[in-house]
Each structure stands twice: as C-alpha cells, then as structure tokens.
Design goal:
With about 170 residues, this protein is mainly α. Helices cover about 70% and strands about 0% of the residues. The longest helix is centred in the last third of the chain and has 21 residues, at about 110-130.
Length: about 170
C-alpha cells in the first residue's frame, strides 16, 4: 500500500482506534481486517480517499472515535465515505432482520465509492465467517445475498468476486 500522507494518517488512526481489539471470528488483531479491505480496494479503480476510508470503515461502529475525529485527522471526504459505510440501525430499532433491512436500504442509496468499499468488506468478512463460524455463516450468507442485490453501483469486479464467495457456500 503506497503511503501518501492521507493513507498513512488513516493507517495510524485505524491502529489507534482498533488497538487491543481482536476479530471475534479468527482471534487475529482487528487491524488485519481493515488492512485487508484496503488491500482489496487497491485491486480496482480507486482513490486515496477510498483506501483511507477502507482502513477506517469500522472505526465509528466499533470504537469511541467519531466522524468528526476522522474528518479532522484525514479529510471530510474520507469521513463522508466512512459515514456511508456506518450502520444506521440501532438495537432499539427492532430485531436483526429489521435492522439489516434498514442498513441495506441506506447502503442502496450510497455512492459507487462507498458500495465498492462495502463489497471489499463483504469479501473479507465472508471468508473469515465461513471458516471460523460456520453456524453464524448460515444467517450471514443470506443477509449478504440480499445486500448484494442493492450494491449495484459498486465496482463490477468486486461485485462478481463477492457474489462468487457468498454463493459458494
């Protein structure tokens, strides 16, 4: 990953935000996941802002860092991309099916750049979940099949790869 000042700051911020966190599926340090998502983004047409947002895509959901922190440390454009990736549903909105429908409807309205990052996220997560939590994978795979239907603005190569991984269960 080429280290432009923007990408380097996103890496530093992601490292700070996810310090001490472990992936619940693999037990690996959490930072491995955003690095993998950013690396997948580099395989298709992308901007430095997309790579930075890929590094930071889970920060608002999973840490105490805010979109304002991201904008201050990187750029407003990166914060906007992260916001497009951040789940809008809250536990009080209903059961998992209801919440996932809300998040899916939100993602359907996002830009091609946000949808491309989400596709990279699906690729990374699906591979881990299938290996490390086959029981949860049954639920997750069905959710991803529905989500892939609305990610029609994202990169076509990543969409095809995500579809292949999701449907090869």
């Amino acid at each position: 990953m080429k280290d432009t000042p923007l990408i380097n700051e996103a890496k530093v911020l992601a490292g700070e935000a996810h310090k001490g966190q472990m992936r619940k599926y693999s037990g690996l340090p959490y930072i491995v996941h955003p690095i993998e998502v950013a690396t997948i983004i580099q395989t298709v047409d992308h901007t430095d802002e997309m790579i930075a947002a890929a590094m930071l895509h889970d920060v608002v959901e999973d840490t105490d860092f805010t979109l304002e922190d991201i904008a201050e440390r990187t750029s407003q454009e990166v914060a906007d991309l992260v916001e497009g990736m951040t789940e809008v549903s809250k536990p009080e909105d209903g059961n998992r099916k209801t919440r996932k429908a809300m998040d899916r409807d939100f993602l359907a309205k996002q830009s091609a750049e946000v949808q491309t990052i989400k596709l990279a996220d699906i690729i990374s997560n699906t591979q881990d979940i299938k290996v490390y939590d086959p029981k949860f994978a049954e639920v997750y795979i069905e959710e991803m099949k529905e989500l892939l239907k609305v990610l029609d603005k994202g990169d076509k190569t990543l969409h095809a790869k995500a579809t292949e991984i999701v449907y090869s269960s």
